[in-house]
Amino acid sequence: MTDRGLIAIAAAIAVCAGLGTGIGEGIAASRAVEAVGRNPEAEDKIRLMMIVGCGISETVAIYGLLVSLILLFVFQ
Known about the structure:
With about 80 residues, the protein is mainly α. The chain has a single domain (about 1-75), classed as F1FO ATP Synthase (Up-down Bundle), CATH 1.20.20.10. It has helices spanning about 1-15, 15-40, 45-75. The N and C termini lie close together (about 10 Å).
């Protein structure tokens, strides 16, 4: 019975990957807004780089969710 509890704890830790992703994307968005404020002519390039960076960092949260679902539903 203790295996289920450990699996639930491991799944909760895997979901915590979304916390770091949210913080990182917030920082990236704030720096992008700051950069556009300093150099409005480069808005298109800054927006593109921010969207690509946020998309790449979002995969960490998706992987964390996937690992937690695998832990919960496969290892029962």
